[in-house]
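User: Here's a chain of 163 residues. Predict its fold as tokens.
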Amino acid sequence: MRILGSTFANLTGSAAAAIQLDSTGEALIENCLFQNNSADLGAAVEVKSSGPVTFDHNTFRANQARKTNGEEVNLIRDAATLRGGAIYIDNVESLICFFCKVVLKNQNTFVDNYAEIQGGAISYRSSGFQDVDGSTVFINNTAGVHSDTVSSFSTQIQVIYDD
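Assistant: Prediction complete.
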């Protein structure tokens, strides 16, 4: 799938107001603008059990992972949502995710994005993403609880007992 030169603005959804990639194959998102979108999880884009996905020279501006139904935030009830002001990546639960990787290249810009819980710009529950050329720009992204720019959490913890 290729999405080129598109604008996604002022959209609202429960997960990924603009693009939701769920169990898709290879995807390229290039020269797109994601602006003022809001959703509970990954306000602009959610990548779930998909890949490889490449983001090439896109702008993510003023997207918000927040309650879209007007309810007050409850940190216990809402802990699994309200992440990824622009992008949420979850490539953990699929057995086919050997090729599930997310790549950022050619200056993707994240400006003024917000998440009520974590990951003002990007939140991931997976092996993460690669900024292959180090050109990604993060400006003034914020999160209500932690990690204004990029957040992640452990998906595999191994306890070792020492008797």
